[in-house]
């Protein structure tokens, strides 16, 4: 029996590459060099499945005409980098990897929160540069998070996991906004209070953490007016998608002191990061590490493989998006 031909657009964890190479006629990106949009479009004509990552771009223009490919196995939970309507319209099934990265992304949100509040990045830079002159009572004083209010925008799996960590480990109060109702059994022991609009959360919270999909109506959801509502003592954390925040407006607000700080794991136009953000001491920047643990990245890859296995076996595919 002829094996289906599949393409991985980047290097994946070795255990997953081994599985896919065993079960399929798999082309690996051994150099791990990002593929262009045009190259991915061409691959749709040469492979039965193309498996991109969240750093790839699959716009509508690559889905014109007839394609050999029948499925896109996306490595990641987010899929705003794929024009889903165009892909589905061209007869392709699109899948993603929800659930498996919840804990690691919540851990990253808390990491950013703590680093920002306690000025950890700033402190490490001072020490490594040889500028630390020793302990003193007023040196690099940060913010105590216990008793502060965490505002979650997007109370899905990751938002809830972040809220649980913040309340249990740090003793923070939790408020949130979510477009749809969140069942009470998912909020057990959180004592989280829902607000009727995003603005209400921003005005009340000391720390705002974003956990919602990018693209569409969420593009620049955090514009200049909303960022200003957080206030001069407030922090914003983003482990969702870079385009959720208007990056230019955020830079202006940080520079003018209309917000105290930002912790960012994602950016508009990755991997480019504005020089203004890099130069700011009241900003913590991570290179999109939300799901970056060995266990989680392997789980993500195996979920893609499970989706492919089901598709090519004619079974119901577990994680389709449309």
UniProtKB/TrEMBL annotation:
Leader sequence segment: none
Start and end residues of each D-isomer specific 2-hydroxyacid dehydrogenase NAD-binding domain: 110-290
Gene Ontology CC terms, in alphabetical order: cytosol
Gene3D superfamilies from the UniProt entry: NAD(P)-binding Rossmann-like Domain (3.40.50.720)
Superkingdom as given in the UniProt entry: Bacteria
Record's keyword terms, sorted: NAD, Oxidoreductase
Molecular functions per Gene Ontology: glyoxylate reductase (NADPH) activity; hydroxypyruvate reductase [NAD(P)H] activity; NAD binding
Protein name: Lactate dehydrogenase
Organism of this sequence: Loktanella atrilutea
Taxonomic lineage of the native organism: Bacteria, Pseudomonadati, Pseudomonadota, Alphaproteobacteria, Rhodobacterales
């Amino acid at each position: 029996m002829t094996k289906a031909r599949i393409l991985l657009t980047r290097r994946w964890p070795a255990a997953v590459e081994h599985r896919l190479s065993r079960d399929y006629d798999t082309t690996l990106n051994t150099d791990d060099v990002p593929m262009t949009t045009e190259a991915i479009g061409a691959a749709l004509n040469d492979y039965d499945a193309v498996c991109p990552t969240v750093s790839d771009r699959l716009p509508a223009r690559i889905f014109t005409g007839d394609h050999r490919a029948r499925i896109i196995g996306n490595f990641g939970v987010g899929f705003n980098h794929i024009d889903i309507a165009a892909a589905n319209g061209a007869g392709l099934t699109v899948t993603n990897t929800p659930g498996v990265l919840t804990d690691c992304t919540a851990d990253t949100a808390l990491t950013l929160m703590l680093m920002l509040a306690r000025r950890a990045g700033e402190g490490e830079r001072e020490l490594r540069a040889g500028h630390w002159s020793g302990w003193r009572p007023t040196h690099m004083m940060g913010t105590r998070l216990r008793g502060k209010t965490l505002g979650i925008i997007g109370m899905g799996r990751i938002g809830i996991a972040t809220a649980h960590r913040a309340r249990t480990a740090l003793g923070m109060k939790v408020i949130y906004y979510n477009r749809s109702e969140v069942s009470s059994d998912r909020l057990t022991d959180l004592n989280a209070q829902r607000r009727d609009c995003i603005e209400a959360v921003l005005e009340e919270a000391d720390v705002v953490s974003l956990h919602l999909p990018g693209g569409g109506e969420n593009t620049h959801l955090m514009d200049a007016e909303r960022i200003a509502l957080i206030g001069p003592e407030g922090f914003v954390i983003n482990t969702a998608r870079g385009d959720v925040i208007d990056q230019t407006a955020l830079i202006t607000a940080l520079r003018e002191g209309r917000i105290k700080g930002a912790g960012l794991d994602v950016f508009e136009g990755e991997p480019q990061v504005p020089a203004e953000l890099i130069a700011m001491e009241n900003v913590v920047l991570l290179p999109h590490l939300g799901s970056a643990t060995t266990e989680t990245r392997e789980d993500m890859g195996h979920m893609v493989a499970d989706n492919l296995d089901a598709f090519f076996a004619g079974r119901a595919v577990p994680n389709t998006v449309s």
